Amino acid sequence: MVHLIEQDFGKFKNEPVKKFTWQSKSGVKVSVISYGAIIQSILVPDKSGQLNDVVLGFDDLQGYVDRNTPYLGAMVGRCANRIRGASFQIDGVTYQLAKNVSGHDHLHGGIVGFDKVNWKSLVDGSKVIFSHLSKDGEEGYPGDLLTNITYEVTDEGIIKIEFTATTTEKTVVNLTNHSYFNLAGHEMGSDELYNHVISINADKITETTPQSIPTGRFVKVGGTPFDLRIPIRLGDAMKQGQNLFDDNFCINTYGNKELNFVSRVNHPQSGRYLEVHSDQPGVQLYTSNFLPSPDEPALIGKSGVGYRRHAAFCLETQNYPDAIHHPNFPSPVLKPGEIYRHRVNYSFGVDKQFNEPQVISS
């Protein structure tokens, strides 16, 4: 039986911020805070039973309010990822959004996105439902958008997240969770990140410009560094090109009613693994390229740990980026009377006899 406890986690604009912690029979322990609906910690046992926190983050609320520019653990929206030119048209009407990346594009919902608000919370058995009403015109988006996020943790060590949203006007919606994972432990940095072994169920990616804006074309992964269909050591994949990875992979089995296999990541030394299933068409693999370089001051996170470039990976299940500008992408437009739904499961466990793939020579 999963145990769920509720605690205070400080105040934001004189409103209490709540912290919810699930303890599962598998040993997995998960904490989520109401500010940003952020996954604050995930403790997972290794093959010897030792617990370690496998997500980057901060010990206190002020860290998330003042220093969370990389969106550590956050819920991002209304629209995750980028929108070219920070504008879009619906029914001939142009909507101008905040230009908060590259000087002219829009990223992760804008300057005050869903990661920077304190969500209302409701406990329903072992589930926690977070709710937020984004008013018409916030960050330039049309329509009042009511969003709910339901978190649940099972005794098997599965974090189940369901996003739903409704709107009063046609609008753009693409929600995701932006957790940064390092299965060796949040403090272990790039050396252990490179030792992870990854596979992704995708035979193509969305081609992008150097500013990470999709061109509308697709690139088949065969013969490229993006071919992660067969498990490969992450460091070996990353060294095959520059600035790898920050790319949207197109999930092969998208369209099934059930959740589709997205990715599996193993850390051989600890035995920990993460498996991701979702009902979304894409997943953004991001390897923390924009965290501080070795020559820059580190981002100070939990327990005083300094987070730097390639300290963790993200698997952000999503619609394709900038889909509003590409008719050949799944539509991101939500209409009045419709319900936006997005389900994703993050499953954690221990594989005591994992065999590493053959290392690619440099």
Any overview of this molecule?
It is a single chain. The protein has helices spanning 61-67, 189-193, 234-238, and strands at 3-12, 15-23, 29-33, 38-45, 51-53, 74-76, 82-83, 87-90, 93-96, 106-107, 120-124, 127-134, 145-153, 158-167, 171-172, 176-178, 197-200, 202-208, 214-220, 232-233, 246-251, 260-266, 272-278, 282-286, 299-300, 306-307, 314-318, 333-334, 340-350. Strands 11-12-13-14-29-23-22-17-20 form a 9-stranded antiparallel beta sheet. A 5-stranded antiparallel beta sheet has the order 1-2-3-4-5, with helices on one face. A 5-stranded antiparallel beta sheet has the order 19-18-21-24-27, with no helix packed on it. The protein is built from 3 helices and 29 strands. Strand 11 (120-124) and strand 12 form a beta hairpin. It starts with a strand and ends in a 12-residue tail after the last strand. 5% of the residues lie in helices and 43% in strands. The longest helix is centred in the N-terminal third of the chain and has 7 residues, at 61-67. The protein is mainly beta and 362 residues long.
Which strand order do you get reading across the main beta sheet?
11-12-13-14-29-23-22-17-20
Low-confidence stretches: none
The residue fraction in helices comes out at under 10%
Mean pLDDT across residues: 96
Q: What structural class do the secondary elements suggest? A: mainly beta
Rg, Cα atoms, Å: 19 Å
Distance between the termini: 48 Å
Shape field: globular
Question: What is the β-strand count?
Answer: 29
Question: How much β-strand is present in the residues?
Answer: 35-45%
Q: How many helical elements?
A: 3
Q: Could you describe the largest sheet, including whether it forms a barrel?
A: 9 strands, antiparallel
Subcellular location: Cytoplasm
Family: Belongs to the aldose epimerase family.
Pfam families: Aldose_epim (PF01263)
InterPro entries: Ald1_epimerase_CS (IPR018052), Aldose_1-epimerase (IPR015443), Aldose_1/G6P_1-epimerase (IPR008183), Galactose_mutarotase-like (IPR047215)
